[in-house]
Every structure is written in structure tokens, then in C-alpha cells.
TrEMBL record:
<feature type="domain" description="M23ase beta-sheet core">
    <location>
        <begin position="179"/>
        <end position="242"/>
    </location>
</feature>
<feature type="transmembrane region" description="Helical">
    <location>
        <begin position="9"/>
        <end position="28"/>
    </location>
</feature>
<keyword id="KW-0472">Membrane</keyword>
<keyword id="KW-0812">Transmembrane</keyword>
<dbReference type="InterPro" id="IPR016047">
    <property type="entry name" value="M23ase_b-sheet_dom"/>
</dbReference>
<dbReference type="GO" id="GO:0004222">
    <property type="term" value="F:metalloendopeptidase activity"/>
</dbReference>
<keyword id="KW-1133">Transmembrane helix</keyword>
<dbReference type="InterPro" id="IPR050570">
    <property type="entry name" value="Cell_wall_metabolism_enzyme"/>
</dbReference>
<dbReference type="Pfam" id="PF01551">
    <property type="entry name" value="Peptidase_M23"/>
</dbReference>
<dbReference type="InterPro" id="IPR011055">
    <property type="entry name" value="Dup_hybrid_motif"/>
</dbReference>
<protein>
    <submittedName>
        <fullName>Peptidase</fullName>
    </submittedName>
</protein>
Length: 278
């Protein structure tokens, strides 16, 4: 078992120990101070912070940065980038789950088409209010499907300060407790060959058109964009990795044909000619 998986098991055990101690202290009158109950919680987040920053390897591991792998874009039409590796790495602040070079993209079919962030109201919006929702998600290369998960619901947006704080402080912590499936939500992993794997996360429930073991061609429809998992609004989270298991894989840099790697807030156009998803 990898160091990352061992650390995640320890993290979840410490979280459960925290809840157990708090519950027991409420039901029974223990003699030690209540703040001791929080020691497992503190240890859990120290552990996960160290693992997330290091990528889960041992101190002797050396991160090997590969040359960018050029693939087709996973969408068509007008989109913009968030949390781009063109601006910083790790792009999402952590190396965990193979996210070192991950990117988030949101559909921007025209200016003003996407609802903006609001301080207080509305607290949340339905996923259907966002143009990215149900947009086709495409294979970036000829590949084999090695993971395909499609059972999680598409939740409301987290596009106000109260909803975003709930996502970061409560929902995100609970999802971390249950692992990568709950963080990525509905997702697909493709084996592109040569030790490279593509991950598509936050897909729409019930939209997957592929199963594990399927062979796909570049531009083939895989699923529809959704808002499942640890997501604030409908968008696609895309990344390349050096293994099929996000718990142990390391990120691999990418470039999209004709686009490169868009920077944060950069609008880009992915041509329909690059895909064949009829």
C-alpha cells in the first residue's frame, strides 16, 4: 500500500476518533478537559496538509516533471479557465489526487451568459442555470476507459459567500473523509498509453456513455458536464496523471492542440472540427 493511501486511512481514522470522543464526552462525564477531544482533529489536518503538499511520497521520492503531453481539447465552443497550471503549480494548491497540473474550465458561450458570484443572495442556483451544465465532454485521445463512475447527484451551486464557506469548511472536509470518489464526483479516467492517464471530474449523473474497458477515439462523447463532487458550479476539472489511481498518481503537464494551456480567466475557443461527437 502506498504512503498516500496509508496516510488517507490514518486521516479518516483520526476524524472518526474525533467524532467518537466528542460523542462520548457528551454522553459521559470524563475527567479530562474537553479540548483534548480536538487533538485527533488537529493531527488529522496536520497529516493531510503534509501529504497534500508533498503529493503523498516519501522524503526520498523526487518529483519528476515530464514534458507536456499534447492532447485534443476535451470540449468544444467558448470556455474560460480557472485554477490553471499556466499561472501556478500545483494549480489547485495541492499535489494530492494527481492535481499538480489540473485545470478547471467553465462555459462562456457569450458575455454574461454565466451567472456571477453573489455575496449573499441568491445563496445557490440550480445547475441548469449555468451554460456548462450538460455540455458534451470528449475524449482527448484514442484511449481505454479504466474508471467510470456515474452515481452521484448534481447539487446546487456554491456561488455565494455562505455557500462557498459551507463548501470549504464543512462539505469539503466530509468529502475528503470519504475519498477521491466524493471529491471528483462522477468521473472518467482514460488510459492514453505511454504511462499517461486523463481524468475528467464533476460529470453529470447518468450522462456517461462509456464503461470500464471500452475503447474510445479522439473526440468521442464520454459524458456531459455536471456539478457533482467537490464543485462550486458546473464545470469540467481536467488533468493528466502518471497512473490510473488518483490516490497514488502524480500529475503530468498537458497542452491542448491549437490552444496550449489557457491562463486564469482567459477565454478560449475549442473548434468543433477538433471533435466528432455526433
Amino acid at each position: 500500500m502506498s504512503a498516500r493511501k496509508l496516510a488517507m486511512h490514518a486521516f479518516r481514522g483520526l476524524i472518526l476518533a474525533f467524532f467518537g470522543l466528542v460523542t462520548a464526552h457528551i454522553l459521559f462525564d470524563f475527567g479530562y478537559p474537553r479540548w483534548w477531544n480536538f487533538l485527533p482533529l488537529v493531527l488529522a489536518y496536520v497529516l493531510i496538509t503534509v501529504v497534500n503538499r508533498s503529493g503523498g511520497g516519501t522524503p526520498d521520492d523526487k518529483r519528476v516533471i515530464r514534458e507536456p503531453v499534447e492532447v485534443a481539447p476535451p470540449v468544444t465552443g467558448r470556455w474560460s479557465a480557472l485554477n490553471s497550471p499556466a499561472d501556478r503549480t500545483p494549480s489547485h494548491g495541492i499535489h494530492a489526487y494527481g492535481q499538480t497540473f489540473a485545470i478547471d474550465i467553465i462555459a462562456e458561450p457569450e458575455p454574461g451568459a454565466r451567472p456571477g458570484f453573489r455575496a449573499l443572495w441568491p445563496l445557490a442556483r440550480r445547475a441548469t442555470a449555468f451554460p456548462a451544465f450538460s455540455a458534451p465532454i470528449l475524449a482527448v485521445a484514442d484511449a481505454t476507459v479504466v474508471r467510470a463512475h456515474d452515481r452521484q447527484r448534481d447539487h446546487l451551486s456554491r456561488t455565494s459567500w455562505p455557500a462557498l464557506l459551507y463548501l470549504m469548511l464543512v462539505e469539503g472536509s466530509v468529502r475528503e473523509l470519504f475519498g477521491v470518489h466524493r471529491i471528483f464526483g462522477n468521473h472518467v479516467v482514460l488510459d492514453l498509453g505511454n504511462g499517461t492517464y486523463a481524468t475528467y471530474a464533476h460529470l453529470k449523473r447518468g450522462s456517461l456513455t462509456v464503461r470500464e474497458g471500452d475503447q474510445v477515439r479522439t473526440g468521442e462523447l464520454l459524458a456531459r458536464c455536471g456539478n457533482s463532487g467537490n464543485s462550486s458550479e458546473p464545470h469540467l476539472h481536467f488533468q493528466l496523471m502518471d497512473g490510473p489511481d488518483p490516490d497514488t498518481a502524480r500529475g503530468v503537464p498537458f497542452r491542448w492542440h491549437g490552444i496550449g494551456v489557457p491562463r486564469n480567466r482567459e477565454i478560449f475557443e475549442a473548434p468543433a472540427a477538433a471533435a466528432s461527437h455526433t
